[in-house]
Amino acid sequence: MGKTLYVTDLDGTLLNRQDKISPFSIETINKLVEEGMLFTYATARSLVSASVVTKGLSTKIPVIAYNGAFIIQPSTGEILAKEDFTDEERTYARRIIGEHGVSPMVYSFVNGVEKVSWIPERENDGVKRYLNVRPGDKRFRAVHDDEALYEGEVFYYTCIGEREELQPIYDVLSADSRYRVTLQQELYRPEYWCEIMPARASKSHAIARFKEMCGCDRVISFGDAANDIPMFEISDECYAVENAVDALKAVATGIIAGNDDDGVAKWLIEKLGNKEFKGK
Q1: Which of 84, 105, 140, 209 has its CA 20 to 30 A from that of 157?
Q2: Domain residue limits at 262
Q3: β-pairing verdict for 237-241 and 218-223
């Protein structure tokens, strides 16, 4: 039997409504990892943010961050693969965002250091919450003008606000093949997020690349949101948690228990609890 790569989304899937992984899930997954299961996560979060909410979870192999923009070795922070904008793509995205009066959070490498820049004078409630739930995040960089906001090697834009103000940005950039754009409501919150990334920055592309890197033959994935559909489409088996959106359930191999009921861990222990992984 060939090697299987198990990949889970975090928010709404492995994480419960308190943005935590239960002790049962951590114990179950860590035990299976020790036995040889190849398990990782693919998330829209950065490695910094993901590392906080996955504390205690064994991640011996690389993880997928920023919706597939990066494949990273969590133990060292080394970026093993990345997708990036061209200078022209950065400039055009900045122009479209600005024309619609939105002030984004800009993810970039400034002098080689990862930073998240924003203009405090333009904060809305969604941006304030994003900052408040990540105290002490060393990436944060408050600036006070657009030139500083877009400084460095930009690789990701996040616009947070009302759907009505973000929809026009989504409509323009999602129609451009150079970009991958998502627009969805924040989990458990009223505000919407419009996230703009390079076209090849996707969970599905990163998983396919990672599958080749680790010599796996099959992928089994777990998710909850519409942006997990491409990941499901390239998986050999794919499971939606009970709290998932209907669109994802419609393309899933099966439905498992919800994120507040340890759905991923329970599926893994039921299917793999007596399986010997080593040497396979």
Answers
A1: 209
A2: 4-82+202-272
A3: parallel
